[in-house]
């Protein structure tokens, strides 16, 4: 989350427990959410742009089996390497340790990961627009995601603020699945 632990905008490395909620929306709901964010004074920190993600794992799938993920993301001119630990139990929110760092050359980092014996286990792309918002005295990051499997609003920050903003938007159906799980499930059904 930008301006919070885990920020990679300045290239530092940090760790924190990522807490987020995901909600599927219609195109009209997405436009309404964006308009309300702007009306609330949210700051657009990344305009709509393509995001490409590659997940890496060993041939035996040990990271996946452990509930972990190693991702190399290209978002605009940024290349970000992220390690995510196992998800902590919560009925509505996704909570997990996250370590991430900006890398100056995504192609070299990809080569290093492959040389270490990792392989690309999953690829996915989406369009994302990112807003920062102070809500109920807490910093939130809201991502508007357009994917091949649906439109989603992702809210990251303190749990209580996530719940109050979700309630304001009328969101009641929390999605705890990752984009990988959603892609796998929905694309398999086509």
In words, what does this structure look like?
It is globular and about 50 Å long. Mean pLDDT is 90; it is low at 1-13. The chain is built from five helices and eight strands, in the order βαβαβββαβββαα. It has helices at residues 27-39, 62-65, 106-115, 159-169, 179-188; strands at residues 14-25, 43-57, 69-75, 78-88, 94-103, 119-135, 138-147, 150-156. The protein has a single domain, classed as Hypothetical Protein Pfu-838710-001 (Beta Barrel). Strands 1-5-4-3-2-6-7-8 form an eight-stranded antiparallel barrel, surrounded by four helices. The protein is of the alpha+beta class and 190 residues long.
Assign the structural class, choosing from mainly alpha, mainly beta, alpha/beta, alpha+beta, or little secondary structure: alpha+beta
Q: How helical, in percent, are the residues?
A: 25-40%
pLDDT averaged residue by residue: 90
User: What is the CATH fold-level name?
Assistant: Hypothetical Protein Pfu-838710-001
Strand order of the largest sheet: 1-5-4-3-2-6-7-8
Q: How many angstroms does the end-to-end distance come to? A: 33 Å
In terms of quaternary structure, the protein is single chain
């Amino acid at each position: 989350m930008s301006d919070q632990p885990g920020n990679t905008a300045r290239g530092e490395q940090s760790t924190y427990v990522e807490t987020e909620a995901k909600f599927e929306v219609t195109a009209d709901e997405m436009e309404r959410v964006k308009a309300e964010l702007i009306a609330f004074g949210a700051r657009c920190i990344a305009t709509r742009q393509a995001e490409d993600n590659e997940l890496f794992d060993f041939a035996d799938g040990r990271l996946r089996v452990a509930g972990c993920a190693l991702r190399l993301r290209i978002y605009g001119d940024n290349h970000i390497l992220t390690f995510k630990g196992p998800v902590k139990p919560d009925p509505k929110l996704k909570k997990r340790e996250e370590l991430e760092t900006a890398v100056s050359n995504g192609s070299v980092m990809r080569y290093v990961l492959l040389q270490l014996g990792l392989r690309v286990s999953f690829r996915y792309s989406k369009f994302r627009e990112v807003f920062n918002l102070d809500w109920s005295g807490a910093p939130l990051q809201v991502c508007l995601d357009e994917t091949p499997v649906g439109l989603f609003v992702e809210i990251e920050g303190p749990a209580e603020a996530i719940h109050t903003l979700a309630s304001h938007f009328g969101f009641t159906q929390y999605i705890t699945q990752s984009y990988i799980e959603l892609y796998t499930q929905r694309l398999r059904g086509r």
